[in-house]
Specification:
Blueprint lengths: L2 H5 L12 H21 L2 H9 L10 H12 L2 E5 L5 H6 L5 E5 L16 H11 L3 H16 L3 H16 L2 E4 L2 E4 L2 H4 L2 H5 L6 E3 L2 H6 L11 E4 L2 H14 L1
Parallel strand pairs: 1-2, 3-6, 5-6
Antiparallel strand pairs: 3-4
Helix pairs in contact: 7-8, 7-12
Bound molecules: fe (ii) ion (FE2).
The site of fe (ii) ion (FE2) has 6 residues, from α6 and α9.
Length: about 240
């Protein structure tokens, strides 16, 4: 076990107890997101959520959730304090490790969190990581990060991760549906989904586009299918 993992309390450990107020905030937001998802989430996400349901009556235990995720795709959860350096966050995917924040967003601003909190990590990323196709893509992001030899490549990987795994959309039955974690975990983002500029899926455009994680989105990319997105992302990550 690495020092960072030991300090964090270990894989799939549960070092935090949540207050009644935090359990209430978690339950309220998960219930609101559960009500929104059937209309705006991709079918892939809805299937993943059935596979890895999250409690709506209080914050989940990380050890239990981590074990259920591990049974699905082999991924494990590493609880961390604060922000993880981006190369470590992505790089750990190659070892089937997802670093997850344990704090909950400010109750006065429940619809959106500028930093990744537990709602974002679990409702967004961890649910998606129970899908084998997405788990494989996360692993590839990790391998590409670990193999990157310059800051420019790391930046390109980061941009593509942002515009796919965080804010990606896919066409389903003529409608734009979300598969990205940042969208799926924010009632504020999901409310505004129809108002964002949406562009055709393009890895090159993603690399050349600016983004700001501290506010609502300025631009989204839509793929014709999850398979198209996965094929393009795989190709990019194996050649970057
Ligand atoms: Fe994220």
């Amino acid at each position: 076990m690495s020092e960072a993992i030991r300090r964090a309390g270990g894989l799939n450990s549960h070092p935090v107890a949540y207050s009644a107020e935090e359990d209430l905030l978690w339950g309220t937001m998960v219930s609101k997101l559960n009500a929104m998802h059937p209309r705006v989430a991709s079918s892939r996400y809805l299937q993943a959520k059935n596979r890895l349901p999250l409690p709506a009556d209080g914050a989940p235990r990380i050890d239990d959730l981590g074990q259920r995720l591990n049974n699905s795709t082999g991924f494990r959860l590493l609880p961390v304090d604060g922000l993880t350096p981006v190369a470590d966050f992505y790089g750990r995917f190659a070892a089937d490790i997802f670093s997850t924040a344990l704090y909950l967003r400010c109750p006065s601003r429940p619809h959106y969190s500028p930093e990744p909190d537990m709602l974002h990590e679990l409702v967004g990323h961890v649910v998606m990581l129970s899908d084998p196709l997405f788990a494989d893509l996360y692993r590839l992001f990790g391998e590409a990060t670990n193999n990157a030899t310059c800051a420019q490549d790391l930046q390109a990987i980061s941009q593509v991760f942002w515009f796919t795994m965080e804010t990606g959309l896919v066409q389903e039955d003529g409608q734009a549906k979300a598969y990205g974690a940042a969208l799926l975990s924010s009632t504020g983002e999901l409310d505004k989904l129809g108002t964002y500029p949406v562009e055709k899926f393009s890895i090159q455009e993603m690399i050349e586009s600016d983004y700001d994680i501290s506010t609502y989105q300025g631009k989204l990319f839509i793929a014709q299918s999850v398979e198209e997105m996965a094929s393009e992302v795989r190709s990019f990550l194996t050649h970057v």
